[in-house]
Amino acid sequence: MGKRIVVIGGANLDLVGRSRVAYRPADSNPGYVKMSPGGVGRNIAENLARLGAEVVFLSAIGQDPQGQLVAQATKAAGVNLEHVLRTDCGTSTYLCILDEKGEMVGAINEMEPIEAVTAEVIRGWEAIIASADLCVIDLNLSEPAIEAFFSIKGEVPVFVDPVSCAKAEKIKPFLSRVAGIKPNRLEAGVLTGVYSDDPMVLGETLLDLGVDEVVLSDGGNGVYCFGDNQKLHCPVKPVEVVNVTGAGDAFMAAWVWSLFSREDWMMRCRFAMAASALTIESEETIYPALSFEAVLKRERELWDDE
Which of 23, 231, 256, 290 would staple 50 via disulfide (CB 3.0–4.6 Å)? Predict the structure, then answer.
C-alpha cells in the first residue's frame, strides 16, 4: 500500500524454553529450548513487513554471530536494516521460560547494546524519521533517546509499545504527543497513576492525558480499545496456546497496519487479535506464514459466527 513505517527499538536473540511436563519452580524441568531472532521493536518491524508495509528498522545489533543471525533473518523478512548500528558489544539476549501450557513463568532481558542508540544517534536519524508515514517506538530506548525522538519527530504520528511496567515510566512526559499506545493493565496503571481493576477507567484516563488511541490488553479478558469517540471491548476467542512469546508484538504490528487497511474499530481490533492468535498457535516468535491474507483468513475463522 506504499506506506512507510519507521520502527525504533530493541533487537535480541530469543532463547525460549518450554516444559514438557507440569512446570515445577526451582527445579530442572524436561522440555525443549529454541533460539530465534526477537526484540519488541524488531518483532513489530518484521510483522509489519510481512503484512505489506515498507519498514525501516532503527536499532543497534552486535557484530557477533548472534547479531549476524538476527540481522540476516530480519532482512530476509523484508525489513530495511541499512541504518542499523552494528556495535562491538554482544547482541541483546532475551531468556524466557514457558510452562507446559505455553504460558510465561519468567524471563530475563539483557539489553545493553540498545544503549548505543543515544540521543545523538536519534538526531542523526532525523531525515529517516521525517520520511515516515508513521513511527513505532518501544521503550527499550533510553530516556535521553526518547526525549531526542520527540524533539525531532515533527508531525509524524508515533505509536508506542511500553515493553514493561519499569520502562513505561519513560513515556509519561510525552503522552500528549502519542498517537497510539498498547499497554497492559499494569502498564496502564504506571502510565496514569491510577491503579484500577476497571480497564475503562484506565483507558479513559490515558485519553484524558492526550493519547489519541489506546489499546489496553487485559489477558484472558480480551482487549479494550479507546479513541475517536469509540470505546469497545473485544473478548478473547479460544485458540490453542503453543507459545505466547511475540503475541503482543504481532498485535501491535497488525493494529498499526490496520490504520491503513481496515475500515472501522471493530475490524481493526479483530484483525490485530487474529494476527496475535496466529502467533500464539505457532512455535515461533513470529508466525512464519504471516501475511495480510493469512490474518484476514484467521479473522474470518474466529468470527465466522458473528
Answer: 290
Q: 227-249: b or e for each residue (b if 16 or more CB lie within 10 Å)?
A: beeebeebebeebeebbbbbbbb
d(C-alpha 242, C-alpha 165), whole Å? 25
Query: For 155, phi and psi rounded to 5 degrees?
Result: -95, 5
What is the Cα–Cα distance from 295 to 297, expressed in whole angstroms?
5
- Listed residue (200, 103, 94) closest to 138, CA to CA: 94
Question: Taking Cα atoms as reference points, which of 145, 217, 146 lies closest to residue 175?
Answer: 146
- 112-122 exposure pattern, b = at least 16 Cβ within 10 A, e = fewer: ebbebbbbeeb
Cα–Cα distances (Å) from 72 to 2, 64, 177, 196, in that order, read: 24, 12, 34, 43
Strand pairing report for 223-227 and 230-234: antiparallel
> Cell numbers 528498522 correspond to what residue?
57
CATH code for the domain in which residue 271 is found: 3.40.1190.20
Grid cell 543497534 in the structure block, residue: 60
Q: How many domains is the chain partitioned into structurally?
A: 1
pTM confidence score:
0.93
User: Domain limits at 25?
Assistant: 4-302
